[in-house]
Amino acid sequence: MVFFTCNVCGESVKKPAVEKHYQTRCRNSEKNVSCMDCLKDFYGEEYVAHTKCISEAQKYASQSQGFVVKESRNKNAQKQESWMDIIRAILDSSEYNLTPALRSAFQKLQSVDNVPRKKAKFENFVGNCMRLPRQQAAQVWDILEKELNKMKEAKQAELARIKAEKVAELQKQQQQEKEEEEAPPKKKSKLEEPTAEEEPTNATSSDFDWSAHLTKIVGKQAEGIILDKLRNKLLKKYAKHLSVEDLSEKQAKKFQKRFNKQLKLSEALQVDGDLVKVAS
Questions:
Q1: 41 has which bridge partners?
Q2: What is d(CA 2, CA 91) in angstroms, rounded to the nearest whole number?
Q3: Beta strands of 148-268 (E only): which ranges?
Q4: Confidence band (pLDDT; 50, 70, 90) for 191?
Q5: Per mean pLDDT, which range of 22-26, 85-89, 109-113, 159-163 is the poorest?
Q6: Is 201 exposed, middle or buried, given 0-12, 13-18 or 19+ CB atoms closer than 10 A?
Q7: How far apart are CA 260 and CA 256, in angstroms?
Q8: pTM of the model
Q9: pLDDT digits (tens, 9 = 90+) for 192-205
Q10: Which of 63, 83, 141, 270 has its CA 20 to 30 A from that of 238?
Q11: CA quadruple 188, 194, 197, 198: dihedral positive or negative?
């Protein structure tokens, strides 16, 4: 919940109560508030778009000492922010031809942080908290649902495009590898001695079951696993498979190349930014 300070009277006000504050206590004044966390000033209706702010840890973190606070992975907050994006998109769109009453309802929704995302709860919420008639609440929900479906279709199309690009990139990479394998090997000088990393071992990378190990590691994490953590876990298994404590530079490069390739090829896994999880 975002809190503001009224720059007229100095009172602290929750975001949903700003409108009421300027209709009662400071009714003869223009809206002029500042966020209590980031201290940014907002004039008129600018405060409506300020849906979330920095945390206490971020506010007082010492950047000069190299301390950077990691963003929390609050799924509910992310879903709520996506929901607010839909409301803002509807207000900015000319497609829906909103009546003054419906536009006012969406503007009120925009200033609330905890809008329900299920139909029954949503209609109860706007009926009880915002005093909207049930028929109007149903109209608002229908518009929200239509915009949500439109965004889902756009997202699916974007994911399909990205997947097609990845497949094309992998096919190109595989073709290059095939051409390299078919190219005649370079002749070695008779004086050259085989290096330690070229010495044969009992196990090779070719009989390492990449897909099974990746799926097993990720499958143990219900919420998914950070990409770097997954790489480190698989690296240990790969080194153990080769019966070495540390990989040589050449082996490490080969591991990284195969890791990236197998992750892209795997249909059982899904990469979302720096998070890897089982595909739904």
A1: 34
A2: 21
A3: 225-226
A4: very low
A5: 109-113
A6: exposed
A7: 6
A8: 0.37
A9: 444 544 444 455 55
A10: 270
A11: positive
